[in-house]
Specification:
By secondary structure, the chain is α/β, with parallel strands linked by helices. 42% of the residues lie in helices and 15% in strands. The model has no long low-confidence stretch (mean pLDDT 96). Residues 13-189 form the Ketoreductase domain.
């Protein structure tokens, strides 16, 4: 029997992570690099990407781009591929939440939310899948949310995109898993990131959210490490089309 620990070894793999300049995307970049992968972080903020790259070292590269710009996808993929070769792993961590109440949703806010949260994961994956097919191996990980299944105030546009991510993940699996490409999603609970800053700025609200979990606390950045490594490695070779909630049991209650 092979050593089970090698199931999580990403040596020789290339990973692309969107939203890698901060939050969970940056944590994912660190984790995959620590597991042996060479990582390409994609985000709009060049200074924050440079910090990510310096933190990880020679196994990290950066591509400054707006993944919501559909017209730029082809050029972006060329840039990404030029770093370490075509990625084996694609993690879609970029996202936005405009927090507009239902009666105040604007067309611009709605369109921006859908472009980044739902359209970008599909079109960037579509552009990268041909090279994964050639290798007969690939890992696509989308980012779902508590709002994939729960309705939160001010979250109608965001929640609609995250519910869409669940079905997008299943549809990706149906289309591409016969070629050795798995597609899954992680649904984080409350983690201290820029996207949830408003939550953690209110201690009472943060404590209330923690109390709603089965574990009794909010997420810490390292809580994402094991789940993302599982979904990006050989360990999850027979797992596809699934949404793994990493939320301390928030959605179980």
């Amino acid at each position: 029997m092979d050593d089970p620990r090698t199931l999580f070894d990403l040596t020789g793999r290339v990973a692309c992570i969107t939203g890698a300049s901060s939050g969970l995307g940056r944590q994912v970049a660190r984790t995959l690099a620590a597991a042996g992968a060479r990582v390409v972080g994609v985000a709009r903020r060049s200074d924050a990407l440079a910090q990510m790259q310096a933190e990880i070292g020679e196994h990290a590269e950066a591509a400054v781009a707006d993944v919501a710009d559909r017209a730029g996808i082809g050029g972006l993929v060329q840039v990404i591929n030029s770093k370490f070769g075509a990625p084996d792993i694609l993690v879609h961590a970029a996202g936005v939440n405009t927090r507009e109440a239902a009666d105040e949703v604007t067309p611009d806010g709605w369109d921006a939310t859908f472009a980044l949260n739902l359209s970008a994961p599909f079109f960037l994956s579509q552009a990268m899948v041909p090279e994964m097919k050639k290798k007969r191996w690939g890992r696509i990980v989308n980012f779902a949310s508590l709002q994939t299944t729960r309705a939160f105030p001010g979250g109608i546009a965001y929640g609609a995109t995250k519910a869409g991510i669940a079905q997008l993940t299943r549809a990706m699996a149906e289309a591409w898993s016969p070629f050795g490409i798995t597609a899954n999603a992680i649904g984080p609970g409350f983690f201290p990131t820029e996207l949830t800053q408003a939550v953690f700025d209110d201690p009472q609200r943060a404590e209330r959210n923690a109390a709603q979990t089965c574990i009794g606390r909010n997420g810490q950045m390292q809580d994402i490490d094991g789940p993302i490594l599982f979904l990006c490695s050989n360990a999850s070779g027979y797992v596809t089309g699934q949404v793994l909630m990493v939320d301390g049991g928030f959605t179980a209650k």
